[in-house]
Design a protein that fits this description.
The chain is mainly alpha-helical. The protein contains eight helices and three strands, in the order H-H-E-H-H-E-E-H-H-H-H. The protein folds into two domains: about 10-90, Winged helix-like DNA-binding domain superfamily/Winged helix DNA-binding domain (Arc Repressor Mutant, subunit A, Orthogonal Bundle); about 95-170. The chain is elongated, with a radius of gyration of 22 Å.
Length: about 190
Amino acid sequence: MTEITDKIDPSAKEKFILYWGDMGSQWSVNRSVAQIHALLYLSPEPMNAEQISEELGIARSNVSNSLKELAGWKLIQRVPVAGDRREHFVAETDVWEMARLIAKGRKEREIDPAIRAIEVCVHQAEDEKALDPVVLKRMQEMHTFLQTVDRWSGQMMNLPTSKLAPLMKMGDKVLSLLKIGGKKTD
């Protein structure tokens, strides 16, 4: 299933898995990893690697590596199945928790190193006498921006779902309330 199959009209489940894989590749996630995640997310029962390989038409070795990556993101976990010695897996099914795990993982792998790298550049730039002050100012602005976004996202990720979900659903209402955007009323 790594690519569109010969079926004229794939099932809704197959389409979801294909689209999730395509979205994953748009976000720099291996297509197979994203498809396995989608399959496990949709699966009502734990699945073993052989079942995943067979259903998606992905090589068993690729499934194994993908499962390790998903486990590293904490998006899936191993679960025992009575009477079966093979490892079985289930996915996190709470979409809010899944979003938190993905955001946390991306922050750790991408945002935190960027903040540290820019901070090093800012400190070095502060000591370079020949550096144009505009360059230093722009580096400082970028560093401050990243720290602010990081602080805000941390606050949002620490909110319980019961508070975060309604806040996000408010959308334009919040902007309108703050009078900084939203629909204009004349």
